[in-house]
Amino acid sequence: MKVPRFLNTLTGRFLMLTVIFVMLAEIMIFVPSIARFREDFLLSRLERAQIASLALLANDTIDMGLEDELLANAGVYNVVLRRDELRQLVLSSPIPAQIYETYDLRNASALELIQDAMTVLIDPEDKVIRVIGDPVKEAGLLIEVTVSTAPLRAAMLDYGVRILALSAAISLFTATLLFFVVRSFMVKPIKHVVSAMTSYTQAPEDARRIFVPTARIQELREAETALFEMQTELTGALRQKERLAQLGGAVAKVSHDLRNILTTAQLFSDRLEASEDPAVMRSAPKLVNSIHRAVNLCESTLAFGKAEEPAPKLTGVRIAELVAEVIESERLAIGDFDLSFAEDVPATMVLRADDEQLHRVISNLVRNARQAIMATGQAGEIAVTTFEEPAEWVIQIVDTGPGLPKKAREHLFQPFQGGARKGGFGLGLAIASELVRGHGGRLALENSDETGTRFAIHLPKGFDLEQNSSVASEVT
């Protein structure tokens, strides 16, 4: 069965539910009301019967015609009065059937009255019942009459129909008022929000389309505020993404040209290796290696601009030689500054990793530590320690610097957000973390406070290159 379109709307369902709930409330009122109507109906018969009996008590001699007229006006078959412990049949006429039930209204409870009223409504058969009550103005101990249920049931049905018709009118009127109120205070603001969301999706980078909260209702105001904050953050993220895309294109162009320049420098540096000058012979290999790494970095930057980091080429890496090379390069950068380096690396330890990528990770961490300590102007120390666990190799870089800033700790490893020093862009740690993940490992900040910082590189021993090749191509 197809549901009407109107009932699928918020206002339509609200209107329907309002009618249903009002009708249910009216039905709950109807049951005791119909019971009270039955009681009043029978009490009125008792009162009219008592008035009719007064005529006979005033005049002992009354003809049969007048007696029948009194009983007909009272709507009863006979009247019994009990006065001074004497039960007296005052008025009487032939009873068409045997008395079906006796009802005493003097001490009847509300539940009994409701049950008796429902019994009369359900049973359509005309029956004779006896009704007992207290006389009006205490004119005796009790009054008792016999009546037919047909007039009582007809009067109750007529009353019930009028009550239900009135209930339906009230429910429709109430629902209509609520319909317009809900439409004004709830549906229109919701449609306004939906319209604003639709407009925003057409051009999310346009800040003019960001929805401004205007609702006064608390719940709607909260929803509008949440939408405003979400759109503001999304627009900012889209703008940043656009700037990063532009920056990536610029970096790719610079890296391309810089790679060509470094390639030329590499050709000249190769000739220096043939020099017989002792100083040149000592410096030439380091110069060649540095230029070679710079060329590889440019090529990697171009690959990063294409949203892909080359998969690591796993080989056996003597970690002691790699760490020594990194530290020797950093010693040249400190000059006369009071900064010491410490190494605790087993000479025979061989890791399974990509030599170039691991060098970039360790060099980045050591360089960051060196720059942080030199920025304080105080003496410090940087220590590199490696050890072996059953399932992984661990490389720790510990410094005695001032610790990472709060912002850097909150956005660690996020490019352009986790800068550890003033003027930094946070790219170094982001790239280092990505390179370590490419090895199937993880780069973790284990401690950072005013006493120093400790990073740890965890490289798994059971690295599956095919299984983790997709990790190597992800971009932070």
UniProtKB/TrEMBL annotation:
Positions of the Histidine kinase domain: 253-463
**PROSITE patterns per the record?**
HIS_KIN
Q: Does the keyword Transcription apply?
A: no
Q: Which domain of life is it from?
A: Bacteria
GO molecular function term, any single one: phosphorelay sensor kinase activity
Q: What is its main location?
A: membrane
Instruction: Enumerate the catalysed reactions.
Output: ATP + protein L-histidine = ADP + protein N-phospho-L-histidine
Q: Does Repeat appear among the keywords?
A: no
Bilayer-crossing residues are 14-35, 163-182
What is the annotated localization of this protein?
Membrane
Q: Give the matching CDD domains.
A: HATPase
Q: Which SUPFAM superfamilies match?
A: ATPase domain of HSP90 chaperone/DNA topoisomerase II/histidine kinase, Homodimeric domain of signal transducing histidine kinase
Cross-referenced InterPro entries: HATPase_C_sf (IPR036890), HATPase_dom (IPR003594), His_kinase_dom (IPR005467), HisK_dim/P_dom (IPR003661), HisK_dim/P_sf (IPR036097), Sig_transdc_His_kin-like_C (IPR004358), TCS_sensor_his_kinase (IPR050428)
Which Pfam families does the UniProt record give? HATPase_c, HisKA
A cellular component annotation (GO) from this entry: plasma membrane
Keywords for this entry? Answer: Kinase, Membrane, Phosphoprotein, Transferase, Transmembrane, Transmembrane helix
Name the EC number(s): 2.7.13.3
Q: Which PANTHER family match?
A: SENSOR HISTIDINE KINASE TRCS, SENSOR HISTIDINE KINASE YKOH
Q: Under which name does UniProt file this protein?
A: histidine kinase
Q: Which organism is it from?
A: Pacificibacter maritimus
